[in-house]
Amino acid sequence: MALNSLLITGLLLSVLTFFLTKINKKLGSYFTIFSTLFVLIFLFGYMNDVGTVFNLGSFGGFSLQLVSSNYGWFFSIIMVLTYFLVSFFNPYWIEKMVNPASYNMLYVFSVVSTLGIFFAKDFLTLFIFWEMVVWSSLFIIPLGKSRKASVVYYTISTIGSFSMFFAVMYLYSLFQTFDIESISQNLISSPNTAVMAYFAIIIAGLAKLGIFPFHTWLPIAHGNAPHTFSPVLSGGLVKMGAFIALLVSAIIPTSQIFSNHIRIIGVPYENYIIMVLGAISIIVGTLMAIKQEDAKRLIAYSTVANGGYILIGISLLDQVGFAGGIMHIFNHAMASAAMFLAIGAVAYRTGTTNMNELGGLIKKMPVTFAAYLIAIISIAGIPPTSGFASKWLIFQGLASKGLMFIAFATFFGSIGSFMYVFRPLATVFLGQLSPKHKDVKEVPFMMQIPMLVMSLLTIYFGVFPSEMLGFISKIQASLNIVPISVEGSKIYSFSGMWDSLVITVAFVIGFIIAALIFYTHKKAQPVDQMNTYTSGEFIYDPESYHYAKNYYAPFERLYKNHPSVEKFYDVIALRVNEFGRLVRSWFFSSNASVGVFWISVIITIAFFWGDKI
Amino acid sequence: MSYLIAFMIVFIGFLWQVSLDGIQRKVTAKIHRRVGPPWYQTFMDIFKALSKSSITHGFIYDFGVMMALGGTIATFMFLPFGNIVAFNGLDNFFVVVYLLAIGSLGMAMSASGSGNAWAGIGIMRALTQMLAYEVPFMIVVFGMIHVYGTSSLSELAHVQQMNGIFGWHIFTMPLGAIVAFISLLGMLSKVPFDTPIAPTEIASGPMVEYGGKHFGMLILQHEFATLVEVGLFVNLFLGGGNLIEYLIKYFFVYTLVTLIYAVSARFRIENVVTFFYGVPIVLSLVQAAIVIFTGLGVNV
């Protein structure tokens, strides 16, 4: 199916979903699985298709066009795959939705609209579809816990959208075209315009990717969105920001345009500024994630930190670091979606995502636990999962350029991620099982499917990262970057190589040795959860024995009085609010005499100076 | 073939480290003016623990112990042991550091799986301490990797041998060596950085529930982790060398660690973090900056 008809069909499917859900809630939800699968299957055919142009529609002198490209395909396949897998959760949550029909419709609508962004040939198409995605997700978020969340989301998203819109219109007034390729050709000869365009457009990407100082919407929106939408928000939609970053730094070739600009440690200062923002996001995201008591907010802050990795990787624009950044998009999509799904599964059975109310669920929900475990191993970047591959490549990229301050942030975030990902593992799944959860069961098999598939993909691309890096090298070649060198399961970088297969085999051997030692010795005697050493205290109540609240209290105390950009935003919001109240009390007062006063003022002005205004 | 060499390294490493551990107990005893146990005491401890009956708190409790030992053994296979490298080219610094985390994660998981609150506190402290010591250490090595263009540990050891004894990084990059040595104390969880274990405060923390074969395996895990951690320092700062030289250097580093921990008192956990994020992190950044921007102390 041609790409433009796929897009149109997908949008029609979303309308069909709406009416099907009106007829029967369950039917409509199953139809979201079908619709996303439909898009996924047809999209797969475009894997090696590059440069075919599709016309979406024309009006006046403008036409909306799509063009197939390998980076567009890479992003869209991740997006649709995440949506498809998460949609297996929809039938079980739909009963709890306030407005199921519009939820299902917007769900399909938002994923299909993203195709328009990733395959856009011109900025106009990109902007139109960008807004479509923003608006559809805007209406889904308040279906969860909070309406205020979507206000915050929209405010920050709008800053980015306006900035991008301004830049696109300005570029149009200069070059009389929206076409991305001809704009980038024109920009090469005018680097000063390019600096402005680079920053103005990338703000939209930063806002979407949750980069400091625009990260504040993520914990609010991810934490309050419906449990079925948080995974796609974090795993999928956030990656649109990464695409914008890729668009303005690689597709518009900044390494070429900025080549004569001031360099900081061998990197043009424009790209370095963006990298510094990524580094700050890593540190802020890590420190804030460590503090959270709510599992969903914790994962949202980890998304902020991982967005920093992706941004740094992309901004490096080199052989290995860039490949790592691109690969991290996939890894983080799978891992964070799996984490959100696991927490969603827990919430489905227990009704809470607050970590200190849970505990000991491993015996009740083993599959969910396994999915969560594999996801966090990937987030923490431990072999043999795919998270290690991308982090290793990003470290190599940084080491080859010697960017030590950025590297400091990435190391900090990488080690810090052990701390925050371990917390839900210990407090939700391990530890003491509360008696009120003693009847909790594993989620239905259909809800286990996405978690299992995501875990398998994470491990598969961890053992065979070269399968994906092969494709990424094609992306690099098409963007005029030296492609990453891969040979079998070996991956080469400037400082040597590594072979994920050998590492996995060695790990398996090590594990076998340990298992042999374990199983050849005397069998252990199982004991009850409460039967543990308590220093002579008598504790009969599992809840008070479970160590979950204020988990990292001694560490949190160290940065208790940290400066916060939220407070700054709150001050601005307060001022805007005050101004609004001022306007209201002056112009829209319920007191009749105020109205009469303004009417008489206006009449007086019109009478005396009306002809001059 | 390389797997066979790996097995051999694991076996020699086990014999060496466990005997050395016994000797260190003797050294500590001399400082404390005690007699101390015989040098083979740690062997006896391990085999006694393995042969005793134990308790289990469920699947994850067992699985975590196996993952801890298995992951640490796998890590040790990749470390250059003297001039023996089992997997050529794979002795990558980042691979070693991250594989070592498998062991820590396994142990953390297992200890939390016991459901003991003391274990939970111990794990919290261990992870916090890890954030403290890893970052300065990695920055120092980051500078090294940048200037030599290799992250292979055996090659980093090799470049130091070219200028004789004064080519060792401990002399050419003294600030980095100081940071790495302090980080090594943190990695080994020895006093003054034994906060996660702290027997007098949190009843041995992660270890509180273990006995019998589980405990024996965790002692083994600790020995292999020590092999990796001290080995990293010897390879990165003392120039590695052939097997005999390597073992001698290893012995001196480990004894120095023992001398320090035999006479120190314990840090509190927040003090560990503030300590590492004070002087050592500044020193490590200064060292990395010197190496990257001036090339001073780099062997050519």
UniProtKB/TrEMBL annotation, chain A:
Keywords: Cell membrane, Membrane, Oxidoreductase, Transmembrane, Transmembrane helix. Its main location: membrane. GO terms for cellular component: plasma membrane. One of its GO terms (biological process) is ATP synthesis coupled electron transport. The chain crosses the membrane at residues 6-23, 30-47, 71-89, 101-120, 126-144, 151-175, 195-220, 232-252, 272-291, 298-317, 329-348, 369-390, 402-422, 443-463, 501-520, 585-609. InterPro entries: ComplexI-like_HydComp (IPR052175), NADH_UbQ_OxRdtase (IPR003918), ND/Mrp_TM (IPR001750). It is a multi-pass membrane protein. GO terms for molecular function: NADH dehydrogenase (ubiquinone) activity; oxidoreductase activity. Residues 120-414 form the NADH:quinone oxidoreductase/Mrp antiporter transmembrane domain. It is found in: Cell membrane; Membrane. It holds the Pfam family Proton_antipo_M. NCBIfam families: PRK08668.1 (NF006419). This is NADH dehydrogenase subunit M.
TrEMBL record, chain B:
InterPro entries: ComplexI_Subunit1 (IPR052561), NADH_UbQ_OxRdtase_su1/FPO (IPR001694). Keywords: Membrane, Transmembrane, Transmembrane helix. It is a multi-pass membrane protein. GO terms for cellular component: plasma membrane. It holds the Pfam family NADHdh. The chain crosses the membrane at residues 59-81, 93-111, 131-153, 165-188, 250-269, 275-298. The keyword Transmembrane helix applies. It is found in: Membrane. This is NADH dehydrogenase. It comes from Petrotoga olearia DSM 13574. The lineage of its organism: Bacteria, Thermotogati, Thermotogota, Thermotogae, Petrotogales.
